[in-house]
Design brief:
The structure is a single chain. By secondary structure, this protein is an alpha+beta fold. It folds into two domains: about 5-170, Jelly Rolls (Sandwich); about 185-285, Orthogonal Bundle (Arc Repressor Mutant, subunit A). About 40% of the residues lie in helices and about 15% in strands. It is built from ten helices and eleven strands. The protein has a six-stranded antiparallel sheet, with helices on one face. The chain has a three-stranded antiparallel sheet with strand order 6-5-8, covered by helices on one side. A two-stranded parallel ribbon has the order 1-3. Strand 5 (about 50) and strand 6 (about 55) form a beta hairpin.
């Protein structure tokens, strides 16, 4: 099931930062994406959230920051015979470029904020003490408007950009080297992305970028935070999730298209990363909210 494009809230015409409280039987959304960034604080209820290729259970206090055009859904499913709990959440939406200040993110002092928005393309779960402070700011946003709300948003972004208590939720469809990585590693990553269905060997990558195998492996791990096999496997799983959610291809065809050596190997790797089998993942994504 492909995510649908959601239009901007009508409130966005009047408010540069939209802040609304959601109450009811469910969150009122479907598997979707939109150009504005979103911060969602779950106060009560909810059973699971879908962000990119990740499906996780929801608990009260869950706080997530999503970048532009990240597919997501919040759900409140109740099994037959179980009591139903209504949901309550605060949703903040805003464009990354504030009106009249489209170039603000390019200033040198905004580097931590730029990095925050880059990471938010995978969805960020806010944890620890940072979550407590961020929760207070989000709750304050409900009671102010206009520039006062913009000021609170900037305080929140500054808090998040300097925190070590944010965790990426989804695997990127094409993982990127860390900022400052060498051109050689960027070249290797581009090669991996364009040759994913084929066997990929460390020795071949090292030869392509003109390094010895050991030197290349060390540099790749330093630049990406992963070994080559980890990086390739993560990318293949991410691409498989995309094909499972947006196409009707069989599991065997997806395994072949993503470069797994066999359907059985694909099943094992997928279960290890997503904690369910591929068809179960497809079914969960396709469930109505």
């Amino acid at each position: 099931m492909k995510p649908i494009v959601e239009m901007l809230s009508p409130l966005a015409a009047a408010e540069p930062v939209v802040c609304e409280i959601v109450r009811g039987h469910d969150f009122g959304c479907v598997w979707h994406y939109h150009p504005d960034c979103e911060i969602t604080l779950v106060l009560k209820g909810g059973t699971e959230r879908l962000v990119g290729n990740n499906i996780s259970p929801l608990t009260p206090g869950d706080l997530v920051f999503l970048g532009s055009n990240v597919p997501h859904d919040y759900r409140n499913h109740t099994a037959p015979g179980e009591p139903h709990t209504d949901v309550e959440a605060i949703v903040v939406q805003f464009m990354p470029q504030l009106p009249g200040h489209e170039d603000w993110m390019q200033r040198s002092t905004m580097k931590p904020i730029r990095r925050l928005f880059q990471r938010a393309d995978q969805g960020l779960e806010v944890t620890g003490i940072t979550r407590l402070t961020a929760t207070r700011i989000v709750q304050e946003m409900l009671h102010v408007h206009g520039m006062q709300r913009v000021i609170l948003l900037l305080q929140l972004l500054d808090l998040l950009s300097n925190s070590e208590e944010l965790q990426e939720i989804s695997s990127p469809v094409l993982p990127q080297p860390r900022p400052g990585a060498s051109d050689r590693i960027s070249m290797a990553c581009e090669y991996i992305g364009s040759h994913l269905p084929e066997p990929i060997y460390v020795a071949d990558l090292a030869a392509i970028v003109g390094l010895g195998k050991s030197a290349f492996s060390r540099l790749f791990k330093k630049s990406t935070g992963r070994t080559v096999p980890q990086y390739v496997n993560e990318l293949r799983i991410a691409c498989a999730c995309l094909l499972l959610s947006e196409t009707d291809l069989t599991v065997s065809q997806i395994a072949m298209d993503c470069g797994f050596v066999s359907p059985a190997h694909f099943q094992r790797q997928f279960r290890e990363h997503q904690h369910c089998v591929p068809l179960a993942y497809r079914s969960r994504v396709a469930q109505p909210s």
